[in-house]
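Re: beginner question about structure tokens

> Can someone show what the tokenized structure looks like for a real chain? I only ever see the sequence side.

Sure, here's an example I had lying around. Input first:
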Amino acid sequence: MILKKKTTVFAVLLAIGGLAYLFSFGKLFVYLPVAFGFSKHETGSVVVFFQQGSSFTDLSRLDSLVKPVEDFHHLRFVRKPKIYVFSDSSSYLRRTITKARFYAYPNGALVISPWAIEEDKAGTISLDIYVRHELSHSLLYQNMGVLAAWRYPAWLMEGIAMYSAGQMGTSWYPSRENTYKMIGAGNYFPPAFYKTRKEDKIKLDVEYRIAFMYSEFGCVVDRLTAVYGEDKFVLYMKTLLSGRAHDEVFREVFGIDYDRFLSDFRSYANNRL
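And the corresponding structure tokens:
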């Protein structure tokens, strides 16, 4: 009996130690109020943590990106977004849940990889555009509940971020015109398949698959705004933050079934050729 109790205590201590590591130096570190190995800086709009040795320390540049994101979405951050700027690649891969250049967590925190900083310096990507993209996610996350975080369409999150950041036509992402041409040529990804088991079943004859998909989602947002107006699109975007079913909200706001709109969207792309 004593041995069994000791084993149980050891298991509990091991679990606690494992969680402590995950929060301090592992995948969950963004959920702590402090970040070991980072220096904390705060402005009127943002809280930034720079990892020791970071070659990027432009606090004002990051601060300036917050208001345009809020203005586009007609929303305000509930709390200042936290941005973690990494200087060490191995640390980034160990302490985040992504291999992407940037990532926004459901709690609204945003991480920036060391290679993203270098690519921005080289002119390969625009740090401002990518951060605005991720801040879009962060802003929506902060303004939605648990149910909405589960039900909010993943494709729409990306489409809003692409459109609001002006990302189409930059880096590897096809422009709006080129995206429509690709759709007209037979390349189309059903938005609802994004981040589902059906995603890999869709064949696309494009150079950069995910870049095309993101630009397509941006074009859907662009088309909704062009046809129905910015006010209705904002109403649609914000109503979904309550966790209501997407297709119901879509029909209520735009007066057309979601599937019918997508059919019209593809016809529009085809007719542009």
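Each token stands for a local structural state, so reading them left to right follows the chain. The chain has two domains: 9-143, 148-271.
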